[in-house]
Amino acid sequence: MIYTKLQSIVNQFNMDQYKGLAIYFLFYLYSSGESRSYLIQTAIENGNRKAGSENNLAFDVKDNDEEPQLLVDLNPKGAGASLRALSPKTSKFCDDPDLLSCQIADISANILGKKSILLPGNIELKFKNKVPGNDNAYNYEGAGSSLIVIYNPESSAMSGTATLADGRTFVLEYIGEEGHLWKEMNIQKLNQLSYVSNGNRGEGRTPFQDFIELPPGNINRREWNPLLNGTTDNTTMAFISVKIHFTKEFASITSNINDFVDKMLAITNQGFLNSKVPITVVMNCLEETGLEETGSANSMFDKFENSENLYQTADTALLLVKNLGDLCGIAYTYAIHGNAISVVQKSCVETFTYGHELAHNLGCQHNIEETKNRNFPHGQGSFIDNPYNPSQGYHTIMTYWKNSHPIKINSYSNPDVIYPRTNTKTGDPEKSNNAAVLLQNRFFIASLGDESQQCFLKNCLNGKCKDSGLQIKNW
Ligand SMILES: [Zn+2]
């Protein structure tokens, strides 16, 4: 029998010590008397080209007593501003059926890091934290609204997602010479994608189910090791690596693939932080797939699962697509056999779908009314009642939308976390504690790959990617 000992040394993230941070997570796995060590760097060094750049903005919270300024200005001034409009080149990046509006905006990156900033509509947000895994990722919050924003020192551009208190969601995207776009997502439509599945609760694989239960004994990417599972350590950071694939169709509507992916990881890692779960997702590889989109979640998932170099050496694999038909995402649940894969539609990244599907891989399930968790009885999503407005309640990441609780929050159910807007717990120890499932299974999932190979596309903009300066890809 294999004797396995897990020894981990980690530097906990400390909000005051981000500058120049290079945290190394040493993960020693002793198996069959043979010692192997996996050195996993955080995203700060691992693929996020921005760390350490001389152009890096000061990250210390700037002590500003002055009036907060607009971070995103929808009334661009300056020379030629009145002439700026959506050109055919620009409008291509507005070609997403899940958008309500799409317009050119100016940004003020120099105010990033200040205590307070304004979004269009005079929405004031205060700096809360840097997002684990990326030294250029900021989280701002205020009165129920939040903003994840990434600064790219190479292009001096920003990308971000603002989730407002009233449920509206706006996306900031850099498109090159023409500046930035400010897009409103059709959240109601994205919610309906989830809602459709309410009528399809059957076991097995149905057209509207976003998870697939694995038959036992399927694939063993790495020997199942119970000692890596069921940890009682609730503080050590687990770094879960992901190989990210994307389709040509995804690339055609994504002006800046690197920034989009960085933002997606920041949204996901902020979700773990909000839930007091020490997991950081780290990109290990970014690659275009040759798979053509079918517009169907199940067929896309099949194609992806059977494709080459799925994980390479990462723990998990993700495929980003433009259109997944009736679903926002699809994944295997409880990837006990190493099948930690998921497919996610681009627009749904804004509603935390990558965090949702990744949590399926780790064993989490929906709210009990939707799907019973067969592996972890407490691993269900939760609703949070809104005492101030009962028709505007909240639901956690794994929970499906319903009329009385239409607003999704970037948190997993957790009885140890209080949701500030209601001052109530986000979960129940017996009934809804997906955070416990994430805590319990995180080291096992993090052990699936050894991260010995990396592959990155860099400097992708408007259909061209310079891959480490050697190759240029065109879409
Ligand atoms: Zn799901």
Briefly, what is this?
With 475 residues, the chain is α+β, with helices and mostly antiparallel strands. The chain is built from 7 helices and 27 strands.
Structure description:
The protein is an alpha+beta fold and about 475 residues long. About 15% of the residues lie in helices and about 30% in strands. It has helices at about 90, 185-195, 250, 255-275, 295-305, 355-360, 435-445, and strands spanning about 5-10, 25-30, 35-40, 70, 70-75, 100-105, 115-120, 125-130, 135-140, 145-150, 155-165, 170-175, 180-185, 210, 240-245, 280-290, 315-320, 330, 340-345, 385, 395, 405-410, 420, 425, 460, 465, 470-475. The strands form six sheets. It has a ten-stranded mixed beta sheet, covered by helices on one side. The chain has a six-stranded mixed beta sheet with strand order 14-18-19-17-15-16, with helices on both faces. Strand 10 (about 145-150) and strand 11 form a beta hairpin. The radius of gyration is 21 Å and the shape is globular. The N and C termini lie far apart (about 50 Å). Zinc ion (ZN) binds next to helix 6.
The neighbouring-strand order within the major sheet is 4-7-8-9-10-11-12-13-6-5
How many alpha or pi helices? Answer: 7
Low-confidence stretches: 1-60, 195-207
Computed over alpha carbons, the radius of gyration is 21 Å
Q: Biggest β-sheet, characterized?
A: 10 strands, mixed
DSSP summary, beta strand count: 27
Shape: globular
Question: What secondary-structure arrangement, pairings included, does this model have?
Answer:
Blueprint: E1 5-9, E2 24-31, E3 34-41, E4 69-70, E5 72-73, H1 88-91, E6 99-107, E7 116-119, E8 123-130, E9 137-142, E10 145-152, E11 157-163, E12 169-174, E13 180-185, H2 187-196, E14 211-212, E15 238-246, H3 248-252, H4 257-274, E16 279-288, H5 297-305, E17 316-321, E18 329-332, E19 341-345, H6 353-361, E20 383-384, E21 394-395, E22 407-408, E23 418-419, E24 424-425, H7 434-446, E25 458-461, E26 464-467, E27 471-474
Parallel strand pairs: 4-7, 14-18, 15-16, 15-17, 17-19, 21-22
Antiparallel strand pairs: 1-2, 2-3, 5-6, 6-13, 7-8, 8-9, 9-10, 10-11, 11-12, 12-13, 18-19, 20-21, 23-24, 25-26, 26-27
The structure holds zinc ion.
